[in-house]
Amino acid sequence: MNIVLDTNVLVSGVINPDGLPARLLNMVINRTLTINADSRILSEYNRVLTSPKFSFPEMYILPLLNYISSESRPVLPNPYPSNLKDPFDLSFVEIALHENIPLITGNKKHFENIENLRLYSPKEFLKSFKSNLLR
Asked: Poorest-confidence range of 40-44, 57-61, 74-78, 85-89?
């Protein structure tokens, strides 16, 4: 199943291996879910996960970033006119709308009022798509 995974969910999955974001990350690694991304999203993942703010060990983060980069589905979306609070969020919206796939985020408020956006928290996504994901 194709998804767009917001950076905050990816970071949360790395920080807490027992949480719902980690379950989603494991589903990506197990190829149950496929991240759809463009170069902006991959750059954002890299920028945030290698940031000194988190101090994640490079020996764990670089293989994860390489895996996501090689296994994600590349998408070249149509531009979407938006005045989002965070300009880094635009690529996530554009891909989710272009592909009509779920955007999973821990910050749903950042994406409110975007028409036709299939927006889910990790908990909502896992609950809504549980039967589809177990096939």
From this structure: 85-89
Residue 9: its H or E element: helix 7-15
- For residue 93, the domain's CATH number is 3.40.50.1010
Residue 98 to residue 9: CA distance in whole angstroms: 21
Q: Which residues contact 4 (CB under 8 A, 6 or more apart)?
A: 35, 36, 37, 41, 92, 95, 96, 99, 101, 102, 103, 104
Model's pTM, two decimal places? Answer: 0.93
Whether the Cβ atoms of residue 25 and residue 57 lie closer than 8 Å to each other: no
Phi and psi at 4, nearest 5°, equal -115, 125
Range of the domain at 13: 2-133
Q: How many domains does the chain have?
A: 1
